[in-house]
Amino acid sequence: MARIALIGPDAASPEVAEIYDRTLRGKPGNAQKALAHRPEMLRTFLPFYASVGRSLERKLYELIYLRVSLINGCHYCTQHHLASSMRVGLTADDWAALRAGDYSRYSEKEGAALSYVEKLTRTPHLITDADFAPLKKHFTEAEIVDIHLLAGLANLTNRFTDPLGLELEMPEEKI
Question: What predicted TM-score, i.e. pTM, was given to this entire model?
Answer without folding.
Answer: 0.96
